[in-house]
Amino acid sequence: MLIVRAPATSANLGSGFDVFGVALDRPADVVRVEKAERTTIEVTGVGSRYIPEDPKRNTVGAVAEALSAPARIRIDKGVRPASGLGSSAASAAAAAVALNELYDRGRSREELVPVAAEGEAVVSGAAHADNVAPAILGGFTVVTEEGVTRVDADLSLVACLPDIVVSTRDARSVVPDRVALTDLVETVGHAATLVAGMARSDPDLVGRGMADGVVTPARADLIDGYDEVCAAARDAGATGATISGAGPTILAVCRSGTQRAVAVSMIEAFEERGVEAQAYRTGVGDGATIYR
């Protein structure tokens, strides 16, 4: 048996729609694999009743097929589905790393990113890599058609997950398909600032760089209390806050010593809107880790 832990991730980070992603040090999925004549899947953990175990409808089934690596696969979910924290990507990333090792396929971590992305396509309909890249590689990642660039970063983060469901399909349907030149210039500036901040592990630059006037405002209406929660996070010491992936999780970047206050403030702001929430005090994490 081979065991792999793969982390939750946060995609987009405001200004980097479908490009930026970051691994979180918690929560995470744990996947166990054993060689078998055909692929079978068992899912336990948070939200497991909503996840199909049919290999043709599960991300890890697609990964096993892509690697020609049939296996008995057991997934212990730590990342809630439909959370905006890369739940399906965590499973796909863990399976890709585990099966590559189990069957000695010899692929590099970078080469496993498109394999795991094919698994993502089972859920989202498209092979997006903005979540699977950091889930496999760790750190902060920039995904383009030319490949993945990884940056080490050390930041304190809070991921606040409300008891709200936002479907990826709905979140994508509200994204505008045309952008004014002025908005494009502003977004490029923010994205560049965020990358510089990640390279320096500078929470102030990253917080400023998360600002986005295109995608985030269109999605904010899907999250009850979004503006109030972001304002509460900043009042408590966060340098910036934005939607994590498709939502509903809100990700905040924290200065040193403010993480607990930010987490409490975000939960209280949701509660004032009658929405229950939980907060993960987390940071930039490592990629998929193999345990034998």
How would you explain this protein's 3D organization?
By secondary structure, the protein is an alpha+beta fold. The protein is built from 10 helices and 11 strands. The strands form 2 sheets. Strands 1, 2, 3, 4, 5, 6 and 11 form a 7-stranded mixed β-sheet that branches. The protein folds into 2 domains: 2-151 and 285-291, Ribosomal Protein S5, domain 2 (2-Layer Sandwich), CATH 3.30.230; 156-283, 2-Layer Sandwich (Alpha-Beta Plaits), CATH 3.30.70. The mean pLDDT is 94. One of its GO terms (cellular component) is cytoplasm. Residues 195-270 form the GHMP kinase C-terminal domain. Its EC number is 2.7.1.39. GO terms for molecular function: ATP binding; homoserine kinase activity.
Short description:
With 292 residues, the protein is of the alpha+beta class. The protein is built from 10 helices and 11 strands. Helix 1 (59-66) packs parallel to helix 2.
